[in-house]
Amino acid sequence: MVTVRQMIDERRFIIHFQPILSVRGRTFFGVEALIRGVSADGTPISPAMLFERADAEGLGMELDRLARHLAIESFHPLWERNKRLLLFVNFESKLIDSYEPGSYLFDGLLKRHGIPFSNIVLEIKEDEIGDTARLEAFCTHYRNLGFNIALDDFGVGRSSFDRLAVVRPDIIKIDRSLIAGIDGDHIHREIVHAICRMSTNIGAIALAEGVETPEEAAYAKYAGATLIQGFWTARPTPDPVCENFPLKIDAIKTRCDRLQNDRRAHTESLREQAESLCESFCETFSSPEELIGWHEAFEPLLSDVSNIEALYLINTSAKQIGPTLLRGKTRSFFEPAEHGSDHSRKEYFVRTLDSKNGYHLTANYVSLATGNLCCTCAVKIEIADRTYVLCMDFIR
User: Fold this and answer.
1) DSSP assignment string, 46-57
2) What is the pLDDT of residues 136-179, one digit of tens each?
3) Which CATH architecture has domain 284-395?
């Protein structure tokens, strides 16, 4: 078996690049450099196995430095063809833990090739770095030189939100475990959406890693990711080409448009159902006094209408009138709002009262009562010249 020492001495390595696309800018944004060793029989050795063997031979730091140098040399021809292209290179976390200024400088190599520091993105895994002071020193040093910083594999392991202030990343790479199957997983969609929204608020770009299907790409974009990377985009190659990338981006847009249209159609269907229910409600009760027992008259509705999980009525003082009507069994810890409960801080109540059309539909959420995926539709109604808000929790 060829040792890592032999591979370093004989330069038995191949640099592959995996493309990164901007779905917002419709551009070939960058490439991530991935080093592979070459065994005695010519078969490739994966990066994970390569660095594991290097660590065993005490050559982790040397291989780490060599990988970046080889990546830059291999990237140069790509950059010559596209001066806006960015190169993503990895830093071994344990090396940052022992970081001293000047330890890993490769400024000279970039200058020799004429590649601006701003075309380089340094990927780090902050959750594997124990020394926060050295992490901050590393990020500050390279950021001041003009390099970009990316947080890799964010959202898994021991990812620490408080370290965002230390790293101040330009790019946040959302781990592939959150992207896999996102088209069918509401919780993953919510997590990815939250990370994307946070990224925007702190001045970072969200990148979805491990995209393997057009559906995952579309849902990642729909959740707010600006950049995507994965086998569906392109597999790593020594010389990636971008002829089909516009078609890939167009395919994502088509699917996102379809998602948006489906959502609008479903929203309109819920609105029609809610308006019909409100008409029935207003026809049933003609005075405020009758509303005390409204739940008794409408309780059979929950059996007749399969997609309603809960009904509750609120007056303009934000006080609930009567109990909450709930379908079926609820979680043992759930405590439904009762008569007189205060809803003044509920967004759906405030928005409905403030809206001109007297209607508000929330985003999807997981019901505390049942664990079902739901949304709340709130509609302003008038009974005997008094205003109320009738709320309906629909099962999605």
Assistant:
1) -HHHHHHHHHHT
2) 888 898 899 899 999 998 988 766 687 888 899 999 999 999 99
3) 2-Layer Sandwich (3.30)
